[in-house]
Design a protein that fits this description.
Strand 6 and strand 7 form a beta hairpin. The protein is an alpha+beta fold.
Length: 197
């Protein structure tokens, strides 16, 4: 009888680390069984539902506050941006304070916000576009890679789109990477997920 292909297979290169070679006689390609090392991803994500709730609560509070009576102050959500509107700079900062308070209460790290320049619009009113940063950008990814390399830990860090994947044979060294990143990256929110043994 023909041998049955084993489960959990991938067509890896022959030199792939921890790969055991066998042939699937029903296919002209050679198949390798790979035993991947433990790994996890460094990411930066926010809960979009909670962000929307925070924006709704901000507009509700601003609309009900006496000091904003008759004002057009509000927040609007776009694609990875939030725009603040107010009658002047002072009220604009008040709207921002309300927004960040609502976000923090809903578990959203406000370090994901990057405030843009205040712009004048019709009359004396102003607006400000705030970027909601999501994902590990290339520059930050390279910084994390270098930081891990300089720490001389026996792990590998590779940029995978908007995430950084860290793999290593020893779980305690992976834990050291998490501790290192938490300590070193303080101006931008990062999370650690997709842990694989």
């Amino acid at each position: 009888a023909e041998p049955q292909p084993r489960r959990g297979l991938c067509a890896c290169r022959p030199q792939a680390q921890n790969a055991s070679l066998f042939t699937d006689y029903r296919s002209p390609i050679t198949v390798y069984e790979c035993n991947a090392m433990p790994n996890f991803d460094i990411i930066s994500e926010i809960n979009q539902v909670e962000l929307r709730n925070a924006l709704d609560q901000t507009n509700k509070e601003v609309g009900n506050r006496f000091d904003f009576k008759g004002s057009d102050a509000r927040v609007e959500q776009g694609d990875k941006i939030v725009t603040l509107f107010a009658d002047d700079n002072f009220k604009l900062n008040q709207v921002y304070d309300v927004l960040t308070t609502k976000m923090a209460k809903r578990g959203i790290d406000v370090r994901c916000l990057e405030r843009g320049k205040v712009e004048s619009i019709s009359g004396d009113k102003v607006k400000q576009v705030i970027t909601v940063k999501v994902g590990i950008e290339q520059e930050l990814g390279k910084k994390i890679q270098k930081m891990i390399k300089d720490a001389k830990l026996k792990v590998q860090a590779s940029i995978q789109g908007d995430a950084v994947r860290v793999s290593g044979a020893k779980k305690d060294e992976l834990q050291q990477v998490i501790t290192l990143v938490k300590k070193s990256i303080t101006d931008f929110p990062v999370q650690f997920n997709n842990f694989r043994d």
